[in-house]
């Protein structure tokens, strides 16, 4: 009798699992992407999610560089913003150019802050016009999404997630001020976790550690400068006191496009999942130039 009962119980469990899996395969996903290369990395993931049977809606400003309609993968909802393509293009170009300049440490820090402040005004404006677009927010509420996929580089998506009261999945390469570590309370001792732009490794001399510490402090300054407007915006929109760290700490999963090939090993929290391999999803054989360059790097 007992084995029969067991097999019946197993059968019931399997049926239940199948039912749940079937249910899970038809989720409704809201995507609030970040413009530029960030979007290019996210798009193949959406394609796969669509193939897995999920329904996807992407929300983006009507002025953008790469986010175009793609009916067989997602439906695109756009909202108007008060700037032009030319203005945004020019700013992005300046940002890209500056990132590759070889400048003295302090000059680089001040230039980076100035450029980030300029670029940030576009994104802040875009976020304001998303949140206060009543037709759009009405649509978002009525659509009853299961989750939001977003790049926390642009924290606007998380404000929407809070507003709709649904879980969010973060997909990111990093956040300039390293909010990902602050928001998750992930340990990150400056004595052996090199800060962005320092070009140090996890083995630093004493002088380098001191500089790394200084860079760490400048990061927090940069953060409040560039990102604090989002805390005001979110507090006003959600009608409660919100900090950016508090906002981002509510993300359910952090899918991080990095691994120990592209960055030095460091502590991660259990909900931070390195998925660096995704950068190689579209792979092609190396050209001869790349091969020589790669061998050059290896030998130095
Ligand atoms: C984070 O989520 C909790 C629980 O849902 C909520 O009470 C809190 O207000 C959220 N934090 C922010 C900053 O929205």
TrEMBL record:
Topology in the lipid bilayer: Single-pass membrane protein
SUPFAM superfamilies, sorted: UDP-Glycosyltransferase/glycogen phosphorylase
Keyword Aminoacyl-tRNA synthetase found: no
Keywords per UniProt: Glycosyltransferase, Membrane, Signal, Transferase, Transmembrane, Transmembrane helix
Localization per Swiss-Prot or TrEMBL: Membrane
Signal peptide: 1-26
Gene3D superfamilies on file: Glycogen Phosphorylase B
Highest taxon above the source species: Eukaryota
Family membership: Belongs to the UDP-glycosyltransferase family.
Protein name: Uncharacterized protein
Species assigned in the record: Phrynosoma platyrhinos
Lineage, opening ranks: Eukaryota, Metazoa, Chordata, Craniata, Vertebrata
């Amino acid at each position: 009798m007992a084995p029969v009962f067991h097999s019946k119980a197993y059968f019931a469990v399997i049926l239940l699992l199948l039912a749940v899996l079937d249910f899970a395969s038809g989720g409704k996903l809201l995507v609030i992407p970040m413009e530029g290369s960030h979007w290019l990395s996210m798009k193949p993931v959406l394609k796969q999610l669509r193939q897995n049977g999920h329904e996807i809606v992407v929300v983006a400003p009507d002025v953008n560089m790469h986010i175009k309609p793609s009916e067989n993968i997602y439906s695109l909802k756009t909202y108007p913003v008060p700037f032009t393509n030319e203005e945004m293009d020019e700013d992005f170009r300046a940002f890209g150019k500056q990132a590759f300049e070889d400048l003295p440490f302090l000059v680089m820090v001040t230039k980076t802050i100035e450029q980030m402040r300029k670029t940030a005004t576009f994104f802040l404006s875009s976020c304001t016009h998303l949140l206060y677009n009543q037709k759009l927010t009405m649509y978002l509420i009525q659509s009853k999404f299961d989750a939001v996929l977003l790049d926390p580089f642009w924290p606007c998506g998380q404000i929407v997630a809070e507003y709709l009261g649904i879980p969010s999945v973060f997909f990111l390469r990093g956040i300039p001020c390293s909010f990902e570590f602050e928001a998750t309370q992930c340990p990150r001792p400056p004595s052996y976790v090199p800060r962005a732009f320092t070009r140090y490794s996890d083995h630093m001399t004493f002088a380098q550690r001191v500089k790394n510490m200084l860079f760490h402090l400048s990061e927090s300054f940069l953060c409040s400068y560039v990102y604090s407007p989002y805390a005001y915006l979110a507090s006003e929109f959600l009608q409660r006191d919100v900090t950016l760290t508090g906002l981002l700490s509510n993300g359910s999963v952090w899918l991080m496009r990095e691994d120990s090939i592209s960055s030095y090993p460091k502590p991660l929290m259990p909900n931070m999942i390195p998925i660096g391999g995704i950068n190689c999803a579209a792979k092609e054989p190396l050209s001869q130039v790349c091969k020589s360059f790669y061998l050059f790097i290896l030998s130095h």
